[in-house]
Every structure is written in C-alpha cells, then in structure tokens.
Amino acid sequence: MGLTSKLGEMGVITVRLEDAVNWARTRAMWPMLFGLACCAIEMMSTQASLYDLSRFGMELMRPSPRQSDLMIVAGRVTRKMAPVLRQLYDQMPEPKWVLSMGDCASCGGVFNNYAVVQGVDEIVPVDVYVAGCPPRPEQLIHGIMMLHERVKQEHISDWA
Amino acid sequence: MTALNPIEALQAAFADAIEDAQTFRGETTIVVAREAIVDVCRYCRDTEGLAYNFLSDVTGVDYHPQEPRFGVLYHLYSMIHNRSLRLKVLLPGDDPVVPSVTEVYPAANWSEREIYDLLGVRFSGHPDMRRILLPDDWEGHPLRKDYPLGKETVQFSFNFDHVDQYKPYAQE
Amino acid sequence: MTGIRDSAWEGDLEQLKGLVSERALTGETMVLNMGPQHPSTHGVLRLILELDGETIVNCTPDVGYLHTGIEKTFESKRYEQAVVLTDRMDYLNPLGNNLAYCLAVEKLTELDVPPRAQYLRVLLAELTRINSHLVWLGTHALDIGAMSVFLYCFREREKVLDIFEMVAGQRMMATYFRPGGLWRDVPEEFEPAVRDFLDYFPAKIDDYEKLLTENPLWRDRTQGIGYLSADDAVRLGCTGPTLRGSGVNWDIRKAIPYSSYDHFEFDVPLGQHGDVYDRYLIRIEEMRQSLRIVRQALDNLPSGPVRSNNRKYVPPPRSEIGHSMEALIHHFKLWTEGFRPPEGEVYVRVESPRGELGCFLASDGSPRPWRVHFRTPSFIHLSALPHMAKGHMIADLVGIVGSIDIVLGDCDR
C-alpha cells in the first residue's frame, strides 16, 4: 500500500495521508446488521465461526445505521421495504458503501414480478454486486475484498 | 364417539345451503352457500361426530373468466378423527363479500386479511379488515387473474444498452 | 426505532384507533415502533407496540416487508420449473418446502415415488430440520444474550450444509426434490459423510444443553414467558413445536404420515407449561429425534431408482436419450411444454421445523398451475403473537418472537 518507512533513530513512519486514511477505512469497515432474506443467513454464516469475518476487521455488526460504514443488502428488496431501505441509507454517515448481495438484490433474481424491486441500485447507489442465490460466504468475502481494493484506490481529491 | 360422514351430516343439517359435494384424490370438498358458511363452520366444529376443531388454512382462488369468479376455501382438520374437510364458498365477481369465520376459528384472522389483500374478497364482520402484505396505498389485488405479473424486461448483453437507458438508477 | 408517524400511518388515525387502546390516544401509554430493521425481529418484521412503562398493552405485528409475490410467480411457471421458487420461501427449510410442493404435484398427478427416493427425502428433510433448529437456537440464544451458542450452532450447521452441497451442488437452495423423485441419486461419499455427522452431532447437542438448559439466567428469561394454553394454541392455529409446547400431541409425521414416515420410529416430545422454555426443550429434543430418523433411514436405505418411471411426468435419464427415440421425445415434450396434470384441487400438509406447512394446488389441466397457495406456519404463528405478548415486558417480547421461530420469508411469501 505504498507505505514508506524511515525507521531511523526518530522512529517515524511517513505515509501519504490518502493511504493512511484508506487503510484505516478498509481495516475497520463496520457493516450494518441488516438482513432481508435468504442471503442474510449466509451473511450470518460469514460472520460465524467457520468463515469469521473478523479477520478483516468486520466482526462488529452495528444494528444502527448511524454507526455503520457498509450496508450489505442481503436479500430481495420488496416495494414495501424499499422506502425503509433508502431511509436507512440516508441515515448512514459518510463515507458509506453499499454491497448488493445475491441475485435478488442485484437484479431481481428469479422474482421478476410486481412485488420485488428489480435491483437495489434503483434505490441506493451500489459499489459491489455479488452474484449467487445465495452467494457462498467465500463469495461474499471476495466481494468485500473487492470493495476494500476499491476503497484503497480512492483519492483525497475525490472526497466531497 | 363414531365419526360421521361429513357430506351426509351437513346435507341433513343444512339442506338448502349445501350446493355441491365432491371427492377428488381422497379429499372431500363441500360447496356451501355464502350466507351459511359461519353456521356450517360452527356446526362442523361443535358436532361430536365431526369435531373439526382445527382450521388449517383459508385461501382464495380466482376462477376468472368463469362465473362465479372467486372461490374461498376453508381447510378444516379434526385432531380427534384425524381427517380433513374442505369447505368452499363461491362468490360472484361483482360482489365478492363473504361472512368472516373469525368468531368460530380465530386462526382465520390473518388468512382472511391476506385474501382481501391479494384477491380483493371482502370479509364482512372481520375485526380488522386492512391490507396485510402489501403497502396500505397499493392499488389493485395482485392475485387476480386480470392483474399483470408486473415483470420487467430482463437485461441481457444484446439489449443491455436499451434497457439500461430506461433503468431508474438511484442517486447519492 | 422511529416514531409511529412514519410511513403508511400518516393521517390515518382512524385505523390506528383499532390497534391501540384509548389510553394511547390521550398520551397515557406510549406507542413504539419496533422494526422493520431490528436485530431481534429475525428479518423484517415490524411490531407496533403500545407500552405502559415497560409492559406491553398491545402488540400489532405488521408483516409484508418481504412479500415477494411467489404465489403469483408460480402461476407463470410450469410445474417442474416452479420447484426453485419453493426453496426461497422458507429459506431455513428449503428441502421441506420442496417436499410439500412435490407431494402436492404427486398427489394431483397420482405419481408414484420409488422407496429409495422416499427414504432419501425423509433423511434430507430431517437434516434440514436440524439445520433450521440450529439457526433458530443460535439466533434465539443470541437475542436473549448468549453469544457463544450462536457460534457453536453455526459451526455445526456448516456440516449439514456440506452434505446438501454434496448431494445437490448448492449449500442452501438445493432444489433437490422434484415431482416424481429426486434430481439424481446421492453420490458415494454421501453415506460416510452422514455417518460422520451422526457420530459427531449428539455430543454437540449436549454441549448446547450444558450452556443453556440449567443456566439460571436462561431459565429466568424463558420460564413462564409467552404462555399459550392448549386450547388457545389450537384455536389460534398454532402447529409444530409451538403447539406441542402447550402439550397437544399433534405431529403431522405421526398423524398423517407422508413420504413413508410411518416406517420410522421416533418420539414426539411434548411440553407441559406452554412457555418459551418448553418450546426450547422441545426443539432440542426434536434434533435428537431427527438424528434417530436419519440413522434409521440410512441403515435401511433401499436400493433402486430415485425417480418415477412414469415418462408422462418425469424426464428419462440422460443415458436413455442417446439410443431411445421415445425417451428423446419425452424429454423434448417435458422440457419444452411441460406436463399436464388433471383438473382438480389438492391440499397437502407436511411438518416443517416450524409447524404445519400446507401446499394448496389448483390445476386447470394446463402445464402451469392455476393457483398455488402455501399455508405457512410463521404467518399463523405471528398472528398469535399478540395473544402471547400481552402483559409481558418489552424485553421478553424478543424471547417470545424467538420461541415461535418465525422466518419472514415463510410468513410473507
């Protein structure tokens, strides 16, 4: 990550501010405890013993949107749920990211009908889409890694 | 306590209200006039030889374009005699109202609300006749046959740009 | 948690009047909105609570946040295509849903299922029950405050999911049961894997019990909470462990045996007090009984085909298509047009981990079902929640919601 160390007598590390901030953001990215449907169960598996998401500094699921950085939309978003979801997104503090987990959240999946929103990107801007019905925990972790890679590429000039 | 034949028992007790009775795949279906459904249910529950004490399910079917258009089906079950019975009420399309059986079987409460929500059949005398699954401001009743499925064009590689340009993407 | 004046309620005080008492309108009691985004509502359940201090005066569940339109979608799919939709309904019990739907189609078409397929169905349905109860136990304990049980339960659950993945290629949404039998036979590694699990799992159930059953905190939080009398349970339509927790001995596997459940020996655990604790004990015991059934099914597994030989409804095996013109025609007909069952209406019950799962199927003789309806236990149990919750503290509500084991996908469909 482009970390330059000058460990001399001073014990000083010099690093670009961008890199330091991005490193901090990726290593403690708290997801929101927010499950909708089937994918939420796989999200719980990802949290639990075998897959252990805390390896990536993400063990802390926050039930409150005001304390979370990442919204994992796990499951189908229905027309009744859509306004609630948008409200939760608006309550999250910047910087925030959205990961659309599973086919239903990404594009409606097998439910192409009146009740399901055909892709959560119609409601909130999505950063990473994870395919699968439901995606395996490995797939979700891969999606999160992709998001981390993306966050590491962010520049100070892009910050609002 | 011997088990009574439900068709014979109901025909004897409600001669005018029993419109039809049939058996298909071992399941008995009795078509009941809608005015009598509450009394028939109470009779089925309280008569000793019938004792249908458990209401499994209430559901509705839209037989559009046939008339009578709607069917409301009650799946009764007797834990004592270990057998089930289906009661059916047929309703005309222009007046889909049926008396609620919640006073006999409280389990019907939400099922009846669901039928109202999805099929638009109203239950008179129901304590809380609101939509249950769909938002309160939803228009129409999706399980009716004249209600479209509401599917959207699926985005494939050959029509990606065309669909994409109409897709309502969210803003920050 | 946000205020009551949130979404659909705005300007509709008349409707609110039926849900809360007069005291709420004068401000004497407080109306609190719990959900739809709340960690202990197991998904997207919304509860409108009227509180007098911490005591619940009224509780009104508001469901439908996961209404997926599955029943409408069924009507646009052919019979054999629609199996995939059933998995996604009750996502903790995917194979049980497959089973209910397949049994309904088989009853409608009078399709025979070979004994091997029936035994494998029972075996996998019982493993699904264990899988579902493990998620229930983990989340229920987590809600009440026992974190470690959650981690243990999900560790064991992975073993079950590995077995599903082995037979069907998918961890959760297996879609392994098809009308007329199974998708294909189980692989060779299946039997040793299940035997490993059978040896491994009983000790783990004891571990959960050690953590919870005698734990004074757990007993304080669950005993005497959410009482449901036997009469009320039947009246309100409760089934499964919720009904048996109140002492009513009714298990569909015993009462109306399907898929050769009458070949197996198992006990139906019953509760006495009808509270959260008894329902917990019953589900724990059910896991042990499920293991018994799995062991018997594995020991007595018949050999033979796993699909019906009725070519009108079941596609021929791949190997036949190469040399039999007739098989090719059947295959083509089935996958392009589908099969046409006779006209009629059937209703089939199975015992899902939550209770009675009913599948109502109406056919008009075309390859697509005219109407499919699922009687789902979560839906009916939630309608009984206000009855159980009234008079309890708000903290106990979390335990009661957990004890009836709701899955919102099952409830809203």
Q: What does this entry look like structurally?
A:
The complex is a heterotrimer of chains A (160), B (172) and C (413). Chain A is α/β, with parallel strands linked by helices. Chain A has a 3-stranded parallel sheet with strand order 3-4-5. In chain A, strands 1-2 form a two-stranded antiparallel sheet. Chain A has 5 helices and 5 strands; from the N terminus they run ββααβαβαβα. In chain A, helix 1 packs antiparallel against helix 5 and helix 2 crosses helix 5 (137-152). The two termini of chain A are 23 Å apart. Chain A has a single domain (30-152), classed as Rossmann fold (3-Layer(aba) Sandwich), CATH 3.40.50.12280. Chain B has 172 residues and is an alpha/beta fold. Chain B has one domain (6-164): NADH:ubiquinone oxidoreductase Nqo5 subunit (Beta Polymerase, domain 2, 2-Layer Sandwich), CATH 3.30.460. Helix content of chain B is 22%, strand content 27%. Chain B contains 4 helices and 7 strands. In chain B, a hairpin with a 2-residue loop joins strand 1 (18-24) and strand 2 (27-32). The longest helix of chain B is centred in the middle third of the chain and has 12 residues, at 108-119. Chain B is elongated. By secondary structure, chain C is mainly alpha-helical. Among the domains of chain C are: 4-62, no CATH class; 111-309, Orthogonal Bundle (Cytochrome-c3 Hydrogenase, chain B), CATH 1.10.645.10. Chain C contains 18 helices and 8 strands. The chains are: A alpha/beta (160), B alpha/beta (172), C mainly alpha (413). Chains in contact: A-B, A-C, B-C. The interface between B and C is large, with 42 and 45 residues.
